[in-house]
Amino acid sequence: MRVLVIVKASEESEAGGIPDAKELAEMGKFNEKLVEAGVMLMGEGLHPSSKGARVRFDGKQRTVIDGPFAETKELVAGFWLWQVRSMDEAIEWIKRAPLFDGGAEIELRPVFEMDDFGEAATPEIREHEASLREKIAGA
Hints:
The protein is an alpha+beta fold. The protein has 4 helices and 6 strands. Helices cover 32% and strands 27% of the residues. The chain has a 4-stranded antiparallel beta sheet with strand order 2-5-1-6. The chain has a two-stranded antiparallel sheet with strand order 3-4.
């Protein structure tokens, strides 16, 4: 199963704070362990919300809202995409992550797989989705 590991923002990350060389090296070692175990598919940190935007959808109307956004605890500072056997395995991995000892909240969410959609995922839809994934992999 794939799991999205969401690193919640903090006042520090929203202020543009970035890890120092020691912290980057620690996280690099952790990421290396994830890669060697075949767990990590992707992982990235995000700039503060002051550099972002939101698009609000209301019927046909689209409204662009420029950052920063107020509720830090509702924002994302980074993410991983992991391939694991279970949520328990993902939880065990995140418990070993460095850099969060000063306080953090990490959210783990399973990613929908095509089988989760049951009969709605017709053979045509499955084929189209597989084709898109091949294109992405080749890019």
